[in-house]
Amino acid sequence: MKDYRVGELDRRFARLGLDEDYLYAYGFMPQATLRLLQPRFDIASTDGRHKPTELAAEVLAFVKDRGTVHPRDVEKHFGSGRAINGWGGFSQATTRALQSLHYYGLLRVVRRRDGIRVYGVADHPEPLPPEERMRELVLLVIRILSPISEAGLRATFSLLKRGAPDLQRLDAVVQRLARTGALESGEVDGEIYFWPAELRRSKSLDMAPEVRFLAPFDPLVWDRRRFEHFWDWSYRFEGYTPAARRQRGYYAMPMLWRDDVIGWINFATTDGRLEFDVGYAKRASRGRDFRLSFEAELERMATFLLHGKETAGA
């Protein structure tokens, strides 16, 4: 997004009609995508509809009474008991209740306060018919990540089942979409790739001389198998790797030059200054076009990081 600054999405997503939820990863999404996920199927329920009990039911009634709540308000009202979280550690039991109610579509995130979710009661329309919902979900994921390798698609589908636990036989859905012409595929060096039929391959190979710094979870980077196949080096997100074992950095961002990912870059801010270090997986480009585009991308990153902090603190 042009001139985007850090934190703007947190501040504006409610006005933009966005929601937070889990697709194949957690994040912001438009309401059209949310309708493919909510109300979420509960495999423990006889009819698939989640029915909160005990503390979760009490928390839901509390939110309905208050309208919107901050997790601290809920904790203050119900106490600070602890429960095991999804990482094997401990969280406040009320926080876990809020997260469960959000996951099953009974609550939604209405805004954020200092990065913390503020919840309100959700009002979702009736879900789409299962077959239509499954078809649109699969097409959506492939559209975001295409062209995606067969192995990458299989791995992403395993994550998608967290966002849509009632989805079954996803391979069969892909085959049906291919038969109807909604999905196309091709083989490169023995690797099969999929993409939606409406995303026709461009005949032009004239790539603009632009540098782009990509987030570790950017759709271009997500499929690690495709990344290595296309650009002949492997990239790994090392945020959870002990510092002594990192090869490229805590938040190393792949660096795209024209149609080639040639290396990575790390950023830090010190006393209002943007600092960076660059690593190359391939021969470093030294031409004038590269230098000018690299400097322009640095300026965009400075606008994003530094100006965003100024706005957040205003």
Which terms summarize this structure?
globular; alpha+beta; three-stranded antiparallel β-sheet; Arc Repressor Mutant, subunit A; 314 residues; 38% helix; 11 helices; 3 domains
Assembly state of the chains shown: single chain
Task: Compute the number of helices.
Answer: 11
Number of strands: 14
Order of helices and strands: HEEHHEHEEHEEHEHHEEEHHEEEH
Strand line-up in the sheet with most strands: 11-12-13-14
What structural class do you assign from the helix and strand content?
alpha+beta
Number of domains: 3
Q: Percent helix among the residues?
A: 25-40%
Mean pLDDT: 87
| Major sheet summary line | 4 strands, antiparallel
- End-to-end separation in angstroms reads 22 Å
Q: What's the Cα radius of gyration?
A: 22 Å
Task: Bin the strand percentage.
Answer: 15-25%
Inertia-based shape: globular
Low-confidence stretches: 85-90, 310-314
Brief summary:
Helix content is 38%, strand content 23%. The chain has 314 residues and is an alpha+beta fold. Helix 3 (54-66) crosses helix 5 and helix 6 crosses helix 8 (170-180).
Explained architecture:
With 314 residues, the chain is α+β, with helices and mostly antiparallel strands. It folds into three domains: 8-121, no CATH class; 130-196, Orthogonal Bundle (Arc Repressor Mutant, subunit A); 211-313, no CATH class. The protein has eleven helices and 14 strands. The protein has a four-stranded antiparallel β-sheet, covered by helices on one side. A hairpin with a 2-residue loop joins strand 6 and strand 7 (116-121). Helix 4 (71-78) crosses helix 5 (93-103). The radius of gyration is 22 Å and the shape is globular. It starts with 7 loop residues before the first helix and ends with a helix.
